[in-house]
Amino acid sequence: MTISxxxxxxxxxxxxxxxxxxxxxxxxxxxxLGKRPGEIAxxxxxxxxxxxxxxxxxxxxxxxxxxxxxxYYIDADTGAFLDSWTNPYTGRVVTPPANRLRLRxxxxxxxxxxxxxxxxxxxxxxxxxxxxxxxxxxxxRLAAQFPAAATPAAPGAPKGLAGEPMEVTHFCASVADVNNxxxxxxxxxxxxxxxxxxxxxxxxxxxxxYVLSEIIGRKIAGPADMxxxxxxxxxxxxxxxxxxxxx
Length: 247
Prior knowledge:
Layout: H1 8-16, E1 24-35, E2 42-57, E3 63-74, E4 85-86, E5 93-94, E6 99-107, E7 113-114, E8 122-126, E9 130-132, E10 135-144, E11 166-174, H2 175-178, E12 189-197, E13 210-220, H3 228-237
Antiparallel strand pairs: 1-2, 1-13, 2-3, 3-6, 4-5, 6-7, 8-10, 9-10, 10-11, 11-12, 12-13
């Protein structure tokens, strides 16, 4: 293909997914920061995990994005998986949940993302590709508003989520690789930032401030390229998932 600003989703598909429609595996890790009004941000914990991705063109011209993730909160200093966590803002011990997220949505050819959970305010867009030297960047922006945990969730909304998240992901690859029709799976890296109110499991008021999750990651060939501790934990908690992802 030839990278074109008029075909933003085609570029995203080349970088984030693969040409034959098979699942692509991404590994990522990063940090979670907390910010309360009138205070400087503080480092709370780290996060790590993997995500299987597909991005395919449908017969009607729309693009279908499918993702299935498994991830964990880990100790900010030791990197140990957190089965419990003492909230430094409240002193209370809480239980960080393991992240097991499945998400599907449709994308129009011009880049507008259609929500998969009607009833919740949503806005999403795939940005035009940006070429810097011999690399190309593709961006994906998502913003939503999920009802508070005490109220009925919007149909199809991810379970256990509340608040007003804003997510921005940047994918990066070689221009030559993206334009090479013989390369079905383009090597790529990504950075992802999520801004959200304090997670419900942190046991804080929704308006107490917000958390900022920052991760970086790369496309990997398969589970063998994952850190051993992460692979073993996923195999224990989700038997069969790595061999047969549900996307």
